[in-house]
């Protein structure tokens, strides 16, 4: 969850515009305005695209449904009114509208279904019209199903989803069942025999017709696999609990039917599981909705039926469904609540037995493998405990707390939770949270509850594959602490003895609110799961708000640990945690301790470990020298306790040491410290003793064996070597002694350089540069031998393939500026070899990956001259070599089976060129104009990523002719304005190489790019050439003309006639300019159209390239209208009527007809074999020749 911006913040900012568009779109979807009337009538049919647009505007609100609340009253009533109006219309659609349109009634139901999905059906149902007069129309609409009727020659369109409409109508009918009038007053009484036989339920002899119709659709709906099943069960419950239906005995009959349904089931009959779930949903809803007087006589039978589902082997297939178990839990919970209310008067059920059996069952299913079942069980236990007497409720809570000790192993004073069941812990923690939320726990039990919640808040287990499986437990713990803060008073929390809180029993000066605040801060800042960080933030806000003046720096703390601020893990760890640590030492110590645990340097992913190490370094800026040394010692001790296989933890801790050392030597280290640390001083922080980390040598297999994830070890050791070497070089210590393990440094650095992963390569420059600097101070001979070894590896021909020796190339680039001899101004032999090796590896003699690495090394080499400790300058010969290598790389268009892999080289070359222009090191290399021309060309080429990078680099250039024509990437690199600004280069004073490069890049975008780029670039080109004069009016006049552009095109054509990469887009652009009548302006000038014709013919001579042949014919269509080339062009096109490719023959015939309007061309099938067309072509040729001669 580490994006640049939180999705929910984006939604909040965009919600107003989304809601405005939604209301406008709904208005267009629902109603239309007649030209002769101001009244707006409902549509009969709606376009699919309009419906999908409304749905797309609603779907983002699933992330934050409450944003819709204030707008529901303006969104849903118009939908309801329009639907009711549509029921009264009988207009038929036009036949041609049937395929592309959807009935309005179905569209409204789809939108209402989506609203139910977002906001919940209980909320949406309240906006539906509940006037009894609409019961009959809605029921008729459901029974007719007119939107789903298929004709013989028609099929149901995929945009029609029948169950959504039935679901919404069932919800509406259940809402209408609240009508206070007897159903007999709204419909006639009729015999129930036919319906009773059809649905298999014994019914009273005479029943209102509406009742029979509703029963039929409900029983059918109970078999559905969609949300329709739940809506049908809810409607059936609403029907049978009506007073008039109870008087008819319908309630008892339906209960008997549902119970007999399960008694008749057996696994051999292959029963429908969806029907079983439908009946269970009905029973559960009935027990919940009916009063004890209404459902009491049936409770024993329902209870026995639920027990049979759980225990009988024939009903195992029902119990195997998580939905069924959830419904059984809900039913048993409600039965037990009914029994507790009735007390000893409960008929047919022993309350004590039911209580014991139900609680025992609920405690067991707290470890169920399905989350919805655990949620249902925890909620059921909390509701039951609320109804119990205080003593008995305490026994249940003790049983729950006792379950926390199952399979827990003690290691000294620490609990080892690796053997516990995380699913059971989730259920137990969730149950405690529900009990706290309902304040069903006595304050005398709060110490044990706090111990359990604090333990659950730090719960973490790793699966066999290394994934986290403790997230749900911590989430439930956050809910529990939030509930504790909300439901219990400040006095209740302050009365808890700290000695009873195991995690803080030695800190008796603290209070429970303060302890909870510390734990929540650590979770909100460091937890790997975003929902838990936000849940902890919400709990912390509730805690501080409900219990003021009990927490140190409470208000500033809650302002820092904001709900949105902790959404991104990088921000939570590296910003929120650091700010919170400044508030009080308690917070600092808790954060530092947790950063060294599984939430920090022991995180699952490498990025999080890197964030944790960075946070440790930033926390050290709030300590004095002794404090930083204590931090380093603690990290070192943790490192020494690691086992060899704990590679991820080692990486995190070593990187933490690296950041500690970096911060200790940073010139930006703040001089002021925490207010609570008055002993802070500005003394030098010396951590060079950490070289002892290498006393226990790392084996080579830690850098080689794939099983040990060597990239993690290599990247962390690289960072540590660089930081320690930098500190040692500036520390005021005796470097001649044996405190610096030179041999081990060289060995580890070489092992790190053997890795080519990106994380290692990123750390290599810092490590190589600082190690070379340190070795130059204490062991110059070792330094020279090390650099020579790197050069030998790169000069070996076997290293030309792939990314082999990539680390060595990067290291040489970083070390270059430190290898000079202060006594001479010329580069040393090692520096000369480095430049020669790296520039050679930028050519096509090595693999693509090796080229990109070499260019990256050159970029690092150029950056190293920014270092004030750089001991050399760049002589002209070196500058020219680097500029020449960049020129070659900027023109790398290598194409393999992977595609344009040369683009990877060009991208890296652009980055290096930008660095060169920033530092100004290549000025005076003699290739400045060539480099600017290359970058200008790339800023206009067809690949978006290349254009974007080149546009940014071009802004760093200094060529005088580009200052007013640099496109810039502010408005995007695909816009009309971008290309139009680039064409300002067309000036008479601009060097020809720059103009040619610009047009070459422009041809790439205008010829073969994506559609939008082609459109914008061509529009800009057309407007630019239209504004140019055709030719100079006098020799002395200085102005750029269309003739100059055309001549440049001709030069490009001549140079690239064998290069299809340039030739194909050039042909297409020339054809486009002919179609736009641009070249026709040159007929009165000296432009050589016959030379153009000759180049075109030569370009496709004996070619089998279909695209090239098609482009040539497009140009012939233009050349045929030029008097100087018309005859030869027509002759050439006529000869292509016998081309071997049928598609080319057809295109040639079309082109010739455009030029001559010869009717015989239209009457011939040009897809026939060439030999069958010879006589026809001969006749056409003589006919055309005669016409042209006449």
UniProtKB/TrEMBL annotation:
<feature type="domain" description="Tubulin-folding cofactor D ARM repeats">
    <location>
        <begin position="346"/>
        <end position="494"/>
    </location>
</feature>
<dbReference type="GO" id="GO:0048487">
    <property type="term" value="F:beta-tubulin binding"/>
</dbReference>
<dbReference type="Pfam" id="PF23579">
    <property type="entry name" value="ARM_TBCD"/>
</dbReference>
<dbReference type="Pfam" id="PF25767">
    <property type="entry name" value="ARM_TBCD_2nd"/>
</dbReference>
<keyword id="KW-0143">Chaperone</keyword>
<dbReference type="InterPro" id="IPR022577">
    <property type="entry name" value="TBCD_C"/>
</dbReference>
<dbReference type="GO" id="GO:0007021">
    <property type="term" value="P:tubulin complex assembly"/>
</dbReference>
<dbReference type="InterPro" id="IPR058033">
    <property type="entry name" value="ARM_TBCD_2nd"/>
</dbReference>
<dbReference type="GO" id="GO:0005096">
    <property type="term" value="F:GTPase activator activity"/>
</dbReference>
<dbReference type="InterPro" id="IPR011989">
    <property type="entry name" value="ARM-like"/>
</dbReference>
<dbReference type="GO" id="GO:0007023">
    <property type="term" value="P:post-chaperonin tubulin folding pathway"/>
</dbReference>
<protein>
    <submittedName>
        <fullName>Tubulin folding cofactor D C terminal-domain-containing protein</fullName>
    </submittedName>
</protein>
<dbReference type="GO" id="GO:0000226">
    <property type="term" value="P:microtubule cytoskeleton organization"/>
</dbReference>
<dbReference type="InterPro" id="IPR016024">
    <property type="entry name" value="ARM-type_fold"/>
</dbReference>
<feature type="domain" description="Tubulin-folding cofactor D C-terminal">
    <location>
        <begin position="932"/>
        <end position="1108"/>
    </location>
</feature>
<dbReference type="InterPro" id="IPR033162">
    <property type="entry name" value="TBCD"/>
</dbReference>
<dbReference type="Pfam" id="PF12612">
    <property type="entry name" value="TFCD_C"/>
</dbReference>
């Amino acid at each position: 969850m580490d994006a640049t911006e939180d999705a929910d913040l984006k939604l909040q900012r965009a919600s107003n515009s989304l809601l405005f568009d939604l209301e406008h779109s709904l208005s267009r979807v629902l109603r239309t305005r007649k030209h002769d009337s101001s009244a707006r009538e409902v549509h009969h049919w709606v376009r699919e695209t309009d419906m999908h647009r409304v749905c797309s505007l609603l779907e983002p609100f699933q992330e934050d449904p409450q944003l819709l609340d204030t707008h529901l009253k303006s969104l849903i009533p118009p939908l309801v009114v329009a639907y009711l109006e549509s029921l009264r219309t009988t207009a038929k659609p036009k036949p041609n509208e049937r395929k592309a349109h959807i009935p309005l009634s179905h569209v409204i139901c789809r939108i209402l279904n989506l609203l139910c999905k977002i906001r919940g059906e209980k909320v949406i149902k309240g906006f539906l019209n509940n006037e009894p007069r609409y019961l009959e129309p809605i029921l008729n609409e459901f029974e007719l199903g007119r939107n789903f009727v298929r004709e013989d020659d028609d099929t149901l369109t995929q945009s029609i989803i029948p169950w959504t409409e039935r679901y919404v109508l069932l919800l509406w009918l259940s809402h209408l069942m609240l009508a206070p009038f007897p159903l007999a007053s709204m419909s006639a009484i009729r015999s129930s025999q036919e319906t009773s036989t059809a649905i298999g339920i014994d019914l009273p002899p005479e029943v209102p017709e509406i009742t029979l119709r509703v029963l039929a659709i409900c029983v059918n709906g109970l078999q559905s696999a969609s949300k329709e099943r739940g809506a049908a069960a809810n409607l059936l419950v609403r029907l049978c609990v009506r007073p008039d239906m109870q008087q008819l005995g319908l309630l008892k009959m339906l209960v008997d039917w549902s119970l007999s349904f399960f008694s008749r089931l057996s696994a051999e009959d292959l029963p429908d599981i969806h029907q079983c779930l439908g009946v269970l949903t009905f029973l559960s809803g009935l027990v919940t909705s009916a009063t004890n007087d209404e459902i009491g006589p049936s409770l024993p039978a329902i209870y026995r039926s639920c027990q049979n589902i759980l225990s009988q082997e024939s009903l195992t297939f029902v119990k195997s469904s998580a939905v069924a178990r959830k419904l059984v839990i809900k039913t048993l919970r409600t039965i037990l609540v009914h029994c507790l209310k009735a007390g000893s008067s409960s008929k047919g059920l022993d309350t004590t037995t039911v209580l014991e059996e139900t609680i025992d069952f609920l405690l067991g299913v707290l470890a169920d493998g399905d989350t919805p079942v655990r949620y249902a069980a925890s909620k059921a236990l909390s509701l039951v405990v609320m109804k119990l007497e205080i003593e008995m409720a305490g026994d249940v809570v003790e049983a729950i707390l006792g379950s926390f000790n199952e399979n827990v192993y003690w290691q000294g004073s620490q609990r080892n939770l690796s053997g516990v069941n995380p699913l059971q812990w989730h259920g137990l923690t969730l149950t405690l949270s529900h009990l706290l939320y309902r304040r069903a726990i006595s304050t005398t039990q709060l110490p044990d509850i706090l111990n359990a919640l604090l333990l659950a808040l730090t719960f973490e287990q790793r699966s066999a594959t290394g994934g986290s499986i403790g997230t749900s437990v911590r989430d439930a713990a956050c809910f529990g602490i939030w509930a504790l803060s909300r439901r219990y008073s400040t006095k209740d929390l302050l009365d808890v003895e700290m000695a009873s809180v195991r995690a803080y029993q030695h800190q008796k000066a603290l209070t429970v609110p303060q302890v909870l605040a510390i734990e929540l801060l650590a979770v909100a800042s460091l937890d790997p799961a975003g929902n838990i960080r936000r849940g902890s933030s919400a709990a912390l806000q509730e805690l501080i708000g409900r219990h003021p003046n009990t927490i140190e720096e409470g208000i500033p703390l809650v302002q820092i640990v904001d709900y949105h601020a902790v959404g991104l893990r990088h921000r939570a760890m590296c910003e929120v945690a650091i700010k919170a640590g400044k508030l009080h030492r308690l917070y600092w110590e808790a954060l530092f301790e947790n950063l060294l645990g599984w939430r920090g340097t022991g995180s699952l992913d490498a990025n999080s470990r890197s964030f944790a190490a960075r946070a440790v370094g930033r926390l050290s800026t709030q300590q004095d020298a002794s404090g930083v040394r204590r931090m380093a010692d603690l990290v070192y001790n943790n490192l020494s306790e690691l086992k060899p296989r704990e590679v991820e933890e080692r990486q995190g801790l070593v990187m933490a040491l690296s950041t500690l050392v970096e911060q200790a030597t940073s010139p930006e280290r703040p001089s002021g410290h925490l207010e609570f640390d008055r002993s802070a001083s500005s003394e030098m922080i010396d951590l060079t003793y950490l070289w002892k980390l290498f006393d226990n040598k790392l084996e080579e297999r830690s850098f080689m064996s794939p099983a040990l994830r060597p990239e993690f070890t290599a990247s962390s050791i690289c960072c540590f070597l660089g930081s320690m070497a930098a500190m040692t070089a500036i520390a005021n210590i005796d470097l001649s002694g044996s405190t610096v393990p030179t041999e081990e440094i060289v060995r580890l650095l070489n092992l790190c350089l053997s890795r080519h992963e990106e994380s290692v390569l990123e750390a290599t420059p810092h490590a190589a540069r600082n190690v070379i600097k340190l070795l130059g101070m204490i062991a110059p001979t070792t330094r020279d031998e090390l650099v020579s070894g790197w050069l030998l590896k790169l000069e070996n021909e076997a290293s030309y393939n792939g990314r082999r020796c990539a680390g060595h190339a990067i290291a040489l680039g970083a070390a270059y500026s430190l290898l000079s001899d202060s006594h001479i101004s010329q580069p040393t032999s090692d520096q000369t070899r480095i430049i020669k090796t790296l520039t050679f590896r930028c050519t096509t003699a090595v693999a693509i990956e090796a080229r990109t690495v070499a260019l990256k090394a050159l970029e690092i080499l150029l950056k190293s001259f920014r270092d004030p400790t750089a001991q050399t300058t760049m002589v002209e010969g070196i500058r020219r070599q680097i500029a020449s290598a960049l020129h070659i790389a900027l023109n790398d268009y290598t194409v393999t089976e992977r595609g344009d892999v040369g683009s990877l080289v060009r991208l890296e070359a652009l980055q290096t060129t930008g660095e060169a222009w920033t530092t100004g090191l290549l000025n005076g290399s003699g290739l400045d104009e060539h480099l600017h021309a290359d970058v200008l060309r790339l800023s206009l080429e067809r690949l978006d990523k290349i254009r974007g990078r080149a546009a940014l680099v071009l802004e760093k250039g200094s060529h005088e002719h580009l200052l007013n024509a640099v496109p810039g990437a502010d408005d995007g690199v695909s816009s009309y304005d971008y290309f139009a600004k680039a064409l300002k280069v067309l000036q008479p004073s601009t060097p020809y190489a720059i103009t040619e490069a610009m047009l070459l890049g422009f041809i790439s975008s205008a010829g073969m790019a994506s559609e939008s780029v082609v459109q914008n670039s061509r529009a800009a080109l057309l407007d630019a050439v239209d504004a140019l004069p055709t030719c100079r009016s006098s020799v002395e006049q200085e102005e750029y003309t269309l003739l100059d552009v055309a001549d440049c095109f001709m030069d490009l054509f001549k140079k690239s006639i064998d290069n299809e990469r340039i030739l194909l887009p050039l042909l297409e652009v020339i054809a486009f300019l002919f179609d736009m009548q641009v070249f026709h302006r040159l007929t009165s000038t000296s432009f050589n159209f016959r030379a153009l014709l000759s180049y075109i013919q030569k370009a496709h001579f004996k070619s089998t390239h279909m695209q090239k042949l098609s482009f040539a014919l497009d140009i012939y269509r233009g050349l045929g209208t030029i008097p100087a080339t018309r005859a030869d062009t027509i002759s050439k096109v006529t000869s292509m009527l016998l081309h071997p490719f049928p598609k080319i023959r057809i295109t040639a015939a079309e082109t010739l007809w455009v030029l001559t309007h010869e009717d015989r061309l239209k009457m011939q099938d040009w897809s026939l074999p060439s030999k069958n067309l010879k006589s026809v072509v001969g006749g056409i040729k003589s006919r055309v020749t005669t016409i042209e001669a006449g």
